[in-house]
Specification:
The complex is a heterodimer. By secondary structure, chain A is mainly α. Chain A contains five helices and no strands. Chain B contains eight helices and no strands. Classes of the chains: A mainly alpha, B mainly alpha.
Chain lengths: 125, 194
């Protein structure tokens, strides 16, 4: 009687890794976007401040930065949960999605840098 | 047995590092005039802890970045060490960010460094400090994702080129942002301390 070979182990899903780094990039893009929007619009700045004030103890000492951190963390958690649920059983191409991640990261860096005097045509006050 | 232990992080290196740092910190506390060292600002202690955790983070994430280089090349033998160090780096980054938030309260106080920079050299705040904040949060985010990537891949991540290279790249990016944040923080503190 011959014993059949054990089945080959299934390749691990790459979905959770892709979900994790994409969620991080989305959260950083939101952080940078919030920073730029708050700098350009007093109304957005006020709203960001109120988000922080409503959720972070002693946020009045941190100013709008508390709201930016809350939005960054909330986006990170929500997008990670959503993308993990969407990708966990799939095998997306890791390198291809990593390029998307790099583009998002570079965009967030450009957004933060857009406020620097002399960078991308920005003028210092 | 080996396979079972490989599934969990080997914390011996982290414990050794923590014990070494603890001994040095204790010796410094016992022998040094701490009040003269820190100054009389009420933000001196959080500021010192922010700097200390940032310095420890720099050491840990540098070792993790070296191991990530071996992971990238597929020659990593010490998977457990990389797993432990990447987790420790993520934790230290969190601690540094939390103490950084406390220090930021003093930074933006009416008599704090922000007011001084805006009055004397506004670009120090608008460029260096804003970018330092972003780089610090970026480094923390990527440290968490890098540690997750290493842990999620398991010991056999070394056999999967795309995953191991991306996990290594995430740890390098995190290290790069943390170095930028640490350097800018040190420079800003040198100009106007807390």
């Amino acid at each position: 009687m011959t014993v059949p070979d054990p089945p080959a182990p299934r390749a691990a899903s790459t979905g959770p890794l892709v979900a994790a780094f994409l969620a991080a990039a989305i959260a950083l893009l939101v952080l940078a976007g919030t920073h730029v929007a708050a700098r350009m619009s007093p109304a957005v700045n006020r709203w960001v401040y109120e988000v922080g004030d409503a959720t972070v103890p002693y946020a009045e000492h941190l100013g709008p930065f508390a709201g930016k951190e809350v939005l960054w963390l909330a986006t990170w958690a929500a997008s990670w949960a959503f993308l993990h649920a969407a990708f966990r059983r799939r095998r997306p191409r890791v390198r291809r999605w990593f390029l998307v991640f790099l583009v998002l990261l570079a965009s967030s860096l450009a957004l933060v840098g857009s406020g620097f005097p002399g960078f991308m045509g920005a003028q210092g006050p | 047995m080996r396979a079972a232990s490989a599934a969990h992080a080997d914390w011996r290196l982290a414990y050794g590092l923590a014990a070494g740092v603890g001994v040095v910190a204790l010796a410094a506390l016992v022998t040094a005039p701490v009040a003269a060292l820190l100054g009389d600002s009420r933000f001196a202690v959080p500021s010192a802890l922010h700097g200390l955790s940032g310095f420890l983070l720099l050491i840990v994430s540098t070792v993790a970045a070296y191991l990530a280089l071996r992971l990238y090349a597929g020659r990593l033998r010490a998977y457990e060490d990389l797993q432990a160090l990447s987790l420790l780096a993520a934790f230290l980054a969190l601690v540094t960010v939390l103490f950084g938030n406390l220090v930021y309260i003093y930074y933006r106080a009416p008599e704090g460094p922000r007011a001084y920079f805006l009055e004397t050299e506004p670009d120090l705040h608008r460029v260096f400090f804003v970018f330092k904040q972003f780089a610090g949060l970026c480094g923390f985010t990527l440290a968490v994702v890098g540690a997750y990537g290493v842990r999620q891949g398991g010991p056999r991540i070394v056999e999967r080129p795309a995953e191991r290279q991306v996990a290594a790249a995430l740890l390098w990016l995190s290290w790069g942002f943390l170095v930028i944040a640490f350097g800018l923080g040190a420079a800003i503190t040198r100009i106007r301390g807390v």
